[in-house]
Design goal:
- The protein is of the alpha/beta class.
- The protein has 2 domains: 4-282, ABC transporter transmembrane region fold (Up-down Bundle), CATH 1.20.1560; 304-546, Rossmann fold (3-Layer(aba) Sandwich), CATH 3.40.50.300.
- It contains 18 helices and 10 strands.
- The strands form 2 sheets. Strands 6-7-8-3-9-10 form a 6-stranded mixed sheet, sandwiched between helices. It has a 4-stranded antiparallel sheet with strand order 2-1-4-5, with helices on one face.
- The protein is elongated.
- The mean pLDDT is 82.
Length: 547
């Protein structure tokens, strides 16, 4: 396309020399041909580079998501969900713009500038020198404003994370907001955050509104000087009119790269700021990884041993000198008051938190030497607060396995005493539950989670207060149905109710991160200690409820 201004010069020269019209026609047709070829390559360039940027965006978002799944729970305790969402959306889009349209426009600017200036030097070195005088001013201007844009965009992205976190928290807690009649208060709070975000963006707009007029002013000033000195040279016969027209055309072509340069610099500053934010996550190393000597047993037996196990979370010691031996196939009940370390203990068995060597052994192998995938695939875990995906009940149950036929799904549901409830739904197992399973009751969510764990056929089954949201009668039914399933594997049952653990082979009573008492039900009653007191208290409560 950059040949066309020179062809325009030749056409003007022919007109001045009164050349035949067919020569001018040939030049015109050549200019049309070059324009068509230019259009084809421009299309190819955009299709290639934009496609490439979309592919990188896809890879980057996939890599970020994969890395997020590897990070330990403490990362999510210390990082807002809205902040993570902002990096996975806005920040990745900013990086895509930098490596797609940004590279395209930068390449186009460089090629256009080098070629146009070369032609301009050929046409008139003196006019070219005059034209390039503002370049140092432009360079300083772009550099200074680029730094301001980078800082401003970092503030915008950081506050965008605050805004998305506010939305996420309000939507997750919408029932609490309504229950306490705080809609107006939360709306005012959100409006204040929204106004702050708009204010930061307006600051960026002010920078842009200064930048482009300055560029046009520089370009206009250059045009005035070129018109004066070039026009004077044409009048004196030192330059042809065609040369001046071609020179002005090249100068006009250079104006867009000058403007695009500012846009590209801004895009680059945005992209690098966003890339820094993304890299903060990607460079966060998972605290838990499979070691180079990881064991990948096809058959895990289920023996668990804790030796002088101590664990601190955020500097606060949660477990103190725990010694515990669970033979394969045993059923162990863990009971005790709130915040006694019960859930922390079973979380360490699934290696959800980093643990020092020599403290936990699975099948006589240090837990740090187990392959994470191999270990966790053999553990069925039902947390105290079950999580269901916004999907069908069937898909929620089969979440932990690659495939399961309807009969296997139904059997797991029957063992979890949820099959009857599912049968009452219009779409049965194809019923779609809401976000986090909101359309189900707390007890139904817990039982679906139990069915999910049973379907994986784990060697170690951990039930962390998994029946806390069901009534006593349903809990009795679940315990009755689970007896056959529990007998096939090592089972750890955490509960606040003695009735859920009294049939266990071993019961441990935990208090302030230590094992206060241990033994079977009869042995603990004979001690007449904390467990016996809890048992008697719950018996009295049951008698009162029957009255």
């Amino acid at each position: 396309m950059l040949l066309n201004p020179y062809l325009l010069k030749l056409a003007f020269d022919r007109l001045e020399n009164h050349s035949p019209s067919n020569e001018i026609l040939k030049i015109a047709l050549l200019m049309v041909l070059f324009s068509v070829i230019s259009g084809f390559f421009r299309f190819s360039m955009r299709r290639t580079l934009i496609w490439m940027s979309r592919k990188i965006e896809y890879d980057m978002r996939s890599d970020l998501f994969e890395h997020l799944l590897k990070l330990n729970p403490s990362f999510y305790h210390n990082t807002r969900t809205g902040d993570i969402m902002a990096r996975a959306t806005n920040d990745i889009e900013a990086v895509r713009m930098m490596i797609g349209p940004g590279i395209m426009q930068m390449s186009n600017t460089i090629v256009t500038a080098v070629t146009a200036i070369s032609f301009m030097l050929y046409l008139s070195p003196s006019l070219t020198l005059i034209s390039l005088i503002p370049l140092p001013i432009l360079s300083i201007l772009v550099n200074r404003l680029g730094q301001i844009v980078h800082k401003q965009f970092m503030k915008i992205q950081d506050y965008y994370a605050v805004l998305t976190s506010k939305v996420q928290e309000n939507l997750s807690g919408v029932r609490v907001i309504r229950a306490y009649n705080q809609e107006d208060s939360e709306m005012k709070s959100f409006s204040a955050h929204n106004e702050k975000y708009i204010s930061l963006n307006m600051g960026m707009i002010r920078i842009y509104s200064m930048f482009y007029p300055l560029l046009f002013m520089l370009a206009g000033t250059v045009n005035i000087f070129v018109l004066y000195f070039g026009g004077k040279a044409v009048v004196l016969g030192e330059m042809s009119l065609g040369t001046l027209v071609a020179f002005f055309t090249y100068l006009a072509i250079l104006i867009w790269p000058m403007i695009a340069l500012g846009w590209v610099i801004s895009m680059y500053q945005r992209g690098t700021a966003s890339l820094d934010r993304i890299n903060k996550i990607l460079y966060t190393k998972p605290a838990i990884e499979s070691s180079s000597i990881s064991h990948n047993k096809s058959e895990l037996q289920g023996k668990i041993e804790c030796k002088a196990l101590s664990f601190a979370y955020n500097g606060k010691k949660v477990l103190h000198d725990i010694n515990l031996l669970i033979e394969a196939g045993m059923t162990v009940g863990i009971i005790g008051p709130t915040a006694s370390g019960k859930s922390t203990l079973v979380s360490l068995i699934g290696r959800l938190f980093p643990i020092s060597r020599g403290q936990i052994f699975i099948d006589d192998i240090d837990i740090n030497d187990w392959d994470l995938h191999s270990l966790r695939s053999k553990i069925g875990f039902v947390p105290q607060e079950p999580f269901l995906f916004s999907d069908t009940i069937s898909n929620n149950i089969v979440f932990g396995v690659d495939f399961a036929n309807p009969a296997e799904i139904q059997k797991a549901a029957e063992s979890a005493v949820i099959n009857k409830d599912i049968g009452n739904f219009n779409d049965k197992y194809e019923t779609v539950v809401g976000e986090r399973g909101i359309t189900l009751s707390g007890g139904q969510k817990q039982r679906v989670s139990i069915a999910r764990a049973l379907l994986t056929n784990p060697k170690i089954l951990i039930l962390d207060d998994a029946t806390s949201s069901v009534d006593t009668e349903t809990e009795h039914l679940i315990n009755m149905y689970l007896k056959g399933e529990i007998s096939k594997r090592t089972a750890i049952i955490i509960s606040h109710r003695v009735s859920a653990v009294k049939d266990a082979d071993l019961i441990i009573y935990m208090e302030t991160g230590t094992i206060a008492e241990s033994g079977n039900h009869d042995a603990l009653l004979s001690l007449n200690g904390r467990y016996a007191l809890l048992y008697k208290t719950q018996l009295v409560e049951e008698e009162l409820n029957r009255m």
